[in-house]
Amino acid sequence: MSRCSRFEEATRREDPGAWRTFLAHASGCADCREELAAWEAISDAAPSLKKEWDSPRLWPRIEAAIAAQPSDTPVSSFRERRRLTWVPLAAAAALFVIAAVGLQVLGPTVTTPLTTRSMKDPLLEESALSEVEKSERAYVDSIGRLSRLAEPRLSQSDSPLFVSYREKITLLDSAIGDLRAQVEQNRYNTHLRRELLAVYREKQHTLEQVVREVKS
Amino acid sequence: MKIAAVSENRLFFFGPARGGDLEGESRSPSEDADEKALRERCGSGDVSAFEELYRTHGARMKSLAANLLGSRTDAEDAVQETFLKIYRGASSFRGAAKLSTWTYRILVNTCLDQRRRKGRAPDLTASGQADEPEAEIRAPAADHPLRMDLEASLASLEQKHRTVFLLFEVEGFTHREVGEILGVPEGKSRTLLFESKRELQRLLRRRGISGEVRA
Question: Does the reported pTM lie above 0.90?
Answer without folding.
Answer: no
